[in-house]
Write a structure and sequence with these properties.
It is a single chain. The protein has 452 residues and is an alpha+beta fold. The chain has one domain (3-451): Lipoprotein localisation LolA/LolB/LppX (outer membrane lipoprotein receptor (LolB), chain A). The protein is built from eight helices and 17 strands. A 13-stranded antiparallel sheet has the order 10-9-8-7-6-5-17-16-15-14-13-12-11, sandwiched between helices. It has a two-stranded antiparallel ribbon with strand order 1-2. The protein has a two-stranded antiparallel ribbon with strand order 3-4. Strand 15 and strand 16 (402-412) form a beta hairpin. The longest helix has 16 residues, at 3-18.
Length: 452
């Protein structure tokens, strides 16, 4: 453990013990870009040499990458260093999440983790680094933690003092300005049968846009629109969401266009543990993007940092050379394709408040130190039994650059089923080179699109 790691860990423990919400000190802020990465990760590698130093991330696309085509794997020649299975998992138990341990035990014949060389590819534009340093002294949680003030464009809490700050870093992390994707979702039965649900999604990530101010933001950090395009029985339904920065001042606003009724109506239930769109009950609304929305129903404890094996640089599983049937198998996805690497993550424990309701009593989040992307989540039921395990299979979209998921999986240990979101092997990849105005995300726009 490096000396900077030790000092930061002590600071974290003290902060959590007293439940403080302190602004970063000038001394801490000065570490950004020096001992720390510009977004707050530890720049140095680990003492074992199994995690490298961060050297700026991946910012140059491979020579054979063409804009608009699927992302080329820059590490296609990397060999598997070793494979973790049920038979050898005890050797690696200290670097596995409880969810991964449970999956290895539950599916001993089929579940495995292929571990590759660790590559710290996460990167963002310089203006995001500059904004992070600029707002580190001004960003604050609201009194109850259900909102953020004094922050825009950058990561609000690069040196977090508590679990709420970490989760807000994930919610407000850099993912580009605009994005469009045409993806498929599937929830295979125990026998492996599935129906593809196809979506056309658009994102207007207002919070991160250049020159943004809190006044111009007008409390809306993200606009999201999702149209179901298949199967026919679901096609034409459209969801619109306006996500807010201060959720007490104004809660999330959502609308749904129903093609049968040909009308737009408010959708206050698009939040928390209500079922996600066409998910067959396999995920909650707040599980999309690994976690989204108001954190108000949980108490958030910052446990600290840990080195664990997480899904990272998953270009292989998003390759157009694969078909969906190659990936979708009974019980869990085909584990020949995911790539796991050893990385440092923030560990945050979320415990349901005594007066709140949610199907998950407890959730453990593992958050990438370099990007603030949630990579793994363990979810527990009301009996405190591990129920579902979620993974965010991340890649660096190096032409942006931004680290984001290419797939999300939610595995139900009780049901022997899972949900996968984000399949695009047989369609088109994410497109970040679009520009969409706020007016394209209005209820009136939704009404016009629904009537076409």
């Amino acid at each position: 453990m490096t000396s900077i790691y030790k000092r930061l860990f002590v600071i974290i423990l003290i902060s959590v013990a007293f439940n403080v919400n302190a602004e970063s000190s000038a001394e801490d802020i000065a570490k950004l870009g020096n001992e720390l990465t510009p977004l707050g990760g530890i720049k140095a590698g680990n003492t074992d040499g199994t995690i490298p130093a961060w050297d700026g991330g991946l910012t140059t696309p491979p020579a054979n990458f063409k804009q608009g085509e699927h992302y080329v794997d820059p590490f296609s020649s990397d060999p598997v260093q070793f494979t973790i299975t049920n038979s050898n998992m005890s050797e690696y138990a200290g670097k596995l999440s409880e969810g991964h341990k449970a999956l290895l035990k539950t599916y001993p014949d089929t579940y495995k983790l292929n571990v590759y060389q660790s590559r710290r590819t996460a990167a963002a534009p310089k203006r995001i680094y500059d904004a992070t340093k600029r707002i580190a002294s001004t960003a604050k949680l609201t009194a109850d933690g259900n909102g953020v003030s004094g922050a825009v464009e950058g990561i609000p809490f690069p040196i977090p003092a508590n679990g709420l700050e970490v989760i807000w870093n994930h919610i407000l992390r850099w993912r580009g300005n605009f994005a469009e994707r045409h993806i498929s979702q599937a929830a295979p039965t125990r026998s492996g049968d599935y129906t593809l649900v196809k979506f056309s999604d658009q994102f207007n990530i207002a919070y991160s846009q250049e020159g943004m101010t809190e006044e111009k933001l007008n409390n809306t950090v993200l606009y999201f629109k999702q149209e179901v395009t298949a199967p026919a029985r679901l096609a034409g339904g459209i969801l619109l969401v306006h996500e807010t920065l201060n959720q007490n001042k104004e809660q999330r606003k959502a609308w749904i266009y129903n093609p049968g009724q040909r009308r737009v109506r408010r959708a206050p239930n698009v939040a928390f543990d209500n079922p996600g769109t066409a998910s067959d009950g396999m995920r909650t609304n707040d599980q999309l993007d690994m976690y989204n929305g108001s954190p108000e129903r949980y108490d958030w404890e910052l446990v600290g940092k840990k080195e664990i094996y997480v899904p990272y640089n998953n270009y292989k599983i998003s390759s157009p050379e694969l078909k969906y049937k190659d990936i979708l198998k009974p019980l869990h996805i085909n584990q020949d394709y995911p790539r796991y690497e050893l990385h440092r993550v923030w560990v945050v424990e979320a415990t349901l408040k005594s007066d709140a309701r949610h199907i998950y009593k407890r959730r453990t989040f593992y958050v990438d130190e370099d990007s603030w992307q949630i990579l793994v989540v363990d979810q527990y039921d009301n009996r405190d039994q591990l129920w579902r395990v979620s993974e965010g299979l991340a890649i660096n979209y190096y032409d942006v650059p931004a680290l984001w998921t290419t797939l999300e999986t939610h595995i139900d240990l009780h049901a022997g089923r899972y949900l996968i979101v984000g399949l695009d092997n047989e369609s088109t990849p994410y497109n970040f080179n679009i520009s969409i105005s706020d007016s394209d995300f209005s209820p009136a726009a939704l009404r016009r699109e629904g009537k076409r």
